Amino acid sequence: MAAKIKIATTSLAGCFGCHMSFLDIDERLLKLADIVEFDRSPLTDIEHCGPCDIGLIEGGVCNSENVHVLREFRANCKILIAVGACAINGGLPALRNFFKLEDCLLEAYQDGIGVDNPQIPSDPELPLLLDKVRPVHEIVKIDYFMPGCPPSADVFWHYLNALIEGRDPTLPYELVHYD
Amino acid sequence: MSGTLCIDGIAVPFSDGQTIIEAARTAGVYIPYLCHRLGYAPYGSCKLCTVKVNGRTNTACTMPAADGQTVISNSPDLQHDRQRITQMLFVEGNHFCPSCEKSGNCQLQAVAYHQNMLDNHYPHFYAQREMDASHPDILIDHDRCIFCNLCVRASKEKDGKEVFGIAGRGIHKRLVINSPSGKLKDSEISVNDEAAHVCPTGAILVKRSAYLAPIGERIYDGHPISEVACEKAVIRAGEASGYPSCDPTKLTDAPQQNGGPDSHYAATMPPAPDIKHGR
Q: Within 13 Å and on the Cβ side, how many CA atoms surround A48?
């Protein structure tokens, strides 16, 4: 039996909604499990990505850790896919791009209504925030894009099937959605 | 003058005074556009409708139809250019479809869907633009303005008011309001004005009209813009029903060498994919 195809997934500045949509392929997961194996992913708790065939990136890039994870995926994945609106254009988290980062922190941790013990988190363990949230294609080369908020389960199925069969993934009109 | 022109291998009749895009639309042949609107003077700012006319690049919305013209619209080169133009529109403004009430009814989004645009390609500007929600009935979200000038033209030519204007150039270009405060509430606009209803994106919205149609029943959920925009069913190259096909190499005596690979494209074009409805 041929070696299983390795897939890694991650959510950067995302809401895990795309991962939830991926799981919506439902019983098709069993078919997928026969031929693929998951490496680093919220589904496996593997901490670092080894060499993989396909990497799925949900979410945009909002902090230094996101940049490291994204580069780790690019270094290890033969094919890297931007999954969902946030990975493609920054999405909802990018709405903070219209405010100063300092103002966002002050509003969330110091001046906001109902804030107890106001202080800006500064633990060295915490990744530093970028001044702006960025789509993933501005940081690393991305091979394919899955639009949608989230992309429907059928979009995931279309892409994975095409790639596993060695084809370029394409989307029929009815599966192209930005919302 | 009337006659017949050849668009992507389809013989399209036209009547006196029609532009190429109007003749195409009447015949059910879709050429993408955003700044054009039926009943408005040709404008030609968005460049989406760029086609090759007898081998030369022209905007179909400004070019008068003429007998014997050979028009190439649906070539890989032109489709690629259209997608890049649309992507530039997406990164220049702030087009977050999931949080936009125009989503599903938006021409910009529908044009992008029609082009199978899956990413924005370019780095994002994240332009800083302020919203004007001052008017009781009409909202302007400048993030979504693509400077098509339709509201400017509607206000001037249809409403006789000149409420809108475009100021600045290049990256400083912006939609401005003709009122003492610069706010919409102090302008002469009324919710019944045509200018309040012509925006092809979600930049000018009538308040209290959002989300009336559920997902699945919005304009472009069931029908691609190629169907909605045309008065008749879409006719694609090679499957012309009701209109005879034409040989794009024979209808004109104009030199073809400027046309490049497009010139012979229509005859070899693969059929467009079947379009199914729903999500």
A: 6
**In angstroms, rounded to a whole number, what is the distance separating the alpha carbons of residues B222 and B217?**
7
Which tokens belong to A166?
Answer: 């060695």
Half-sphere exposure of B121 (CA within 13 A, CB side): 15
The encoded tokens of residue A42 equal 């919220």
CA distance A83 to A22: 10
Distance from CA of A14 to the nearest CA of B (A): 14
Tokens of B263: 């010139």
**Rounded to whole angstroms, how far apart are CA atoms B141 and A25?**
37
Q: Which two tokens stand for residue B153?
A: 């033209």
Q: In the block, which residue shows the tokens 């969330």?
A: A108
Give the residues of chain A that fall short of pLDDT 50.
none
Interface mutation target, options A100, A136, A158, A177, chain B, most CBs of B under 10 Å: A177
pTM (2 d.p.): 0.90
Query: Between B54 and B261, where is the model more confident?
Result: B54
Taking an 8 Å cut-off on Cβ atoms, the answer to whether A89 and B273 are in contact is: no
Domain extents for chain A? 5-94+131-174
Instruction: State the Cα–Cα distance between residues A4 and B130, nearest whole angstrom.
Output: 51
Question: Which residues neighbour A102 within 8 Å (Cβ) at sequence distance 6 or greater?
Answer: none
State the fold for domain A5-94+131-174.
Rossmann fold (3.40.50)
Distance, CA of B126 to CA of A33 (rounded, Å)? 40
